[in-house]
Design brief:
The chain is mostly helical. It has a domain at about 45-150: Cytochrome c-like domain (Cytochrome Bc1 Complex, Chain D, domain 2, Orthogonal Bundle). It contains 6 helices and no strands. Helix 2 crosses helix 6 and helix 4 crosses helix 6. The radius of gyration is 23 Å and the shape is elongated. The site of heme C has 29 residues, from helix 3 and helix 4.
Length: about 160
């Protein structure tokens, strides 16, 4: 690309960067091609191109609502709550070394995605007497994302 052709583009980018308003949304990549050049395909699909990956990424971010009390790595020490690694498919109250409430121990729940959804929406309604007193997510989309993230770290 010649400098003369690059300059207007450059000033555009500078203008955008200096503008007082924050630029909303994700940054876009601008690919400038000379006429006749072959199109260059990006080799790796961006995560946002795959809805399942995007949901897991959103869930990882939303897990900030849980991480004060829960780790989500294999063999992590329990915190205020038990580690949530591999939770999908586990019976409630099954993490070694965690002192659960009697209510949770007696619940008989197997943590499917549907059971998790109900619990995270309102823990005390799902398991009256649970000691999980914070971390409820009212927003269904956030729950869906967090559950997808937990599922991505569980045996299939
Ligand atoms: C303020 C601390 C706290 C926060 C925040 C929190 N939890 Fe908990 N969680 C707990 C405690 C304590 C327990 C154990 C409850 C009991 O024994 O009754 C628990 C239990 C659980 C269980 C049951 C685990 C098992 O082994 O049966 C799941 C699933 C769970 N939490 C998911 C979440 C998710 C997902 C979030 C975030 C959206 C979250 N929690 C946020 C404290 C918390």
């Amino acid at each position: 690309m010649t400098i003369a052709r690059a300059l207007p583009l450059l000033s555009l980018i500078l203008l955008a960067a200096c503008s007082a308003d924050p630029v909303p949304g994700p940054t876009e990549q601008i690919i400038v091609r000379e006429p006749g050049d072959a199109a260059v395909e990006t080799a790796v699909a961006a995560p946002e191109a795959d809805p399942a990956l995007a949901l897991i990424a959103a869930g990882k971010a939303a897990f900030a609502n849980c991480s004060a009390c829960h780790a989500i790595v294999a063999d992590a020490a329990n915190g205020v709550g038990p580690t949530l690694y591999g939770m999908i498919g586990k019976p409630a109250g099954a993490v070694d070394g965690f002192a659960y409430s009697d209510a949770l121990n007696a619940s008989g729940i197997i943590w499917t995605t549907a059971e998790l959804d109900a619990f995270i929406a309102n823990p005390a309604a799902k398991i009256p007497g649970t000691t999980m007193v914070a971390g409820a997510l009212a927003e269904p989309e956030q729950r869906r994302a967090v559950i997808a993230y937990i599922e991505s770290l569980s045996a299939s």
